[in-house]
Known about the structure:
Helix 1 links the parallel strand 1 (4-9) and strand 2 (29-33). This protein is 40% helix and 19% strand. It is of the alpha/beta class. The strands form two sheets. It has a seven-stranded mixed beta sheet, sandwiched between helices. A five-stranded parallel beta sheet has the order 2-1-3-4-12, with helices on both faces. The protein has two domains: 4-97 and 253-284, Methylene-tetrahydromethanopterin dehydrogenase, N-terminal domain (Rossmann fold); 101-249, NAD(P)-binding Rossmann-like Domain (Rossmann fold, 3-Layer(aba) Sandwich). Helix 1 crosses helix 9 and helix 4 (98-112) packs parallel to helix 10 (274-284).
Amino acid sequence: MKKLLFQFDTDFHPSVFDSVVAYDGGADHVIGLGGVSPENVKGLVEGTIFTRAPKDKKNTAIFVGGSDMAAGQALFIAVQKQFFPGFRVSVMLDSNGSNTTAAAMVAKLRTTGTLAGKKAVVLAGTGPVGQRAAVMLAQEGATVSITSRQIANAEKACAAMKERFNVDLTPIEAVDYDGRVQAIQGAQIVLATGAAGVELLKPEHWQDNQTLEMIADANATPPVGIGGTDVMDKGLDRHGKIIWGAIGFGTLKLALHRACIAKLFEDNKQVFDAELIFQLAKEMA
Length: 285
């Protein structure tokens, strides 16, 4: 029986990236649907849960994606509300690659240093990857701050993660280089999760920082988020700091994404959100 993955995307066009990785993860067919929302998902879910016998439901799964994490989270919840005993399929949330990217980044940091008890700052951390990475760092015992050019956005992100994961994050306004340099003072861990092609720190902003131990940059588009690092950095020591570039931990991100897809088809009860994805990332790292 064919393994069918239904890709429910909150954007108009389903993500090509997610489709490719889904095939590489073991799906026989990927059916991408765009513009899916909590309001129109009911019939789509019913099509996945009513069409195969109980023993065969493991061969149907749902992937929730799109560029908007808040919209993806709402859709993810709406999908599960349609399930009832005996009628459900496995489902995964990875809007904008946020769960798998954040999990791979933090899991790799764990392999090269201690996170518990450390001060961590997630620069430009209000996006999907930044928010989830901040949560995972906090769950590992770090004290975590999120920066944004507008304090209201940082506060909103921290409040959303408190509501979803019950973790305490600190919002920081950092409108320019000076603000970001100030934000990382006394920090041992710095993550850059800003928009593609935006440099958040220059080399001189971090190279002589005496407390800084580890840096991870999620930006693979030139210029990178942390000047003086490289996308290929794979736990490389630069100026006494351990550096992870986007491609350096990206190998784990892709392997993790594929592994999650494969696990969706093991049975029909899998629910892959940040918690299980991060747990798997730590095992794989």
